[in-house]
């Protein structure tokens, strides 16, 4: 029977118990689980019971970690999964933790994608193509992305978004020589995904040469 031969309390954020077994295995356990199941020095467990408890605790800790990420900012399900995996949580535990959060609507990819599009268009206007690519990187399902992009771009034109970018750039870069100003504006608009047809209409016009 697995036996606890050492147990230490770690005052980290979050707080954890480090549990050493007589087999040499070392496990991390939340204080809630340690208290609930009476983890203590020389405590013995049936092997099947111990690993059931450890699996249950890993899901609990993964869920707590995901909630801390969500406290900082909204996340897509894919983003949370990647972060939990990098933290060392097994895929099965991470998947179960996120499923439990989805059940109570603490993870909602459609709501997240809507908020993300609104924020990006306000903070850093860009084309539909760029937004589609960014949403795909965040793991948003294509059907969700397309429905939301159609909704937003039915009320917004890429020409107007590009004009917002160009006007802001020109206001803050008046000191540049005309050629350099034009070159930088082109690169900026291209980086935001706007087509050349749109960009061309926004470039500063050279003064007309005086008539002889």
Please report which band the strand proportion falls in: under 5%, 5-15%, 15-25%, 25-35%, 35-45% or over 45%. Answer: 5-15%
> What is the N-to-C succession of helices and strands?
EEEHHHHHHHHHH
Mean of residue pLDDT? 94
Tell me the overall shape.
elongated
Q: What strand order characterises the main sheet?
A: 1-2-3
User: What's the N-to-C terminus distance?
Assistant: 102 Å
Let me know the largest β-sheet.
3 strands, antiparallel
Count of all domains: 3
Count of distinct strands: 3
Number of helices: 10
CATH topology of the largest domain: Arc Repressor Mutant, subunit A
Low-confidence stretches: none
**Structural class of the helix and strand makeup?**
mainly alpha
- In CATH, what is the class of the largest domain? Mainly Alpha
Which terms summarize this structure?
single chain; 212 residues; mainly alpha; Arc Repressor Mutant, subunit A; 3 domains; three-stranded antiparallel sheet; 10 helices; 8% strand; elongated
Would you mind describing this structure in some detail?
The protein has 212 residues and is mainly α. The protein has 3 domains: 4-103, Arc Repressor Mutant, subunit A (Orthogonal Bundle); 109-153; 158-200. It is 59% helix and 8% strand. A hairpin with a 4-residue loop joins strand 2 (16-21) and strand 3. The radius of gyration is 27 Å and the shape is elongated. The relative contact order is 0.07. The model has no long low-confidence stretch (mean pLDDT 94).
């Amino acid at each position: 029977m697995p036996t606890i031969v050492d147990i230490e309390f770690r005052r980290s954020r979050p707080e954890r118990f480090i549990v050493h077994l007589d087999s040499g295995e070392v496990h991390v356990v939340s204080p809630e689980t340690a208290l609930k199941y009476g983890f203590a020095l020389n405590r013995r467990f049936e092997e099947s019971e111990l690993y059931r408890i450890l699996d249950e605790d890993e899901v609990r800790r993964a869920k707590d970690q995901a909630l801390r990420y969500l406290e900082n900012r909204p996340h897509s399900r894919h983003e949370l999964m990647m972060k939990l995996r990098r933290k060392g949580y097994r895929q099965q535990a991470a998947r179960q933790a996120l499923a439990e959060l989805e059940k109570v609507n603490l993870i909602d990819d459609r709501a997240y994608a809507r908020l993300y599009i609104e924020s990006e268009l306000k903070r850093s206007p860009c084309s539909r193509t760029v937004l589609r690519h960014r949403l795909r990187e965040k793991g948003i399902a294509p059907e969700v992305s397309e429905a939301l992009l159609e909704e937003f771009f039915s009320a917004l034109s890429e020409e107007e978004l590009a004009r917002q970018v160009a006007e802001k750039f020109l206001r803050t870069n008046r000191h540049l020589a005309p050629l350099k100003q034009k070159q930088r504006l082109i690169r900026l608009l291209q980086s935001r995904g706007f087509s050349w047809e749109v960009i061309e209409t926004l470039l500063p016009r050279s003064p007309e040469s005086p008539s002889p």
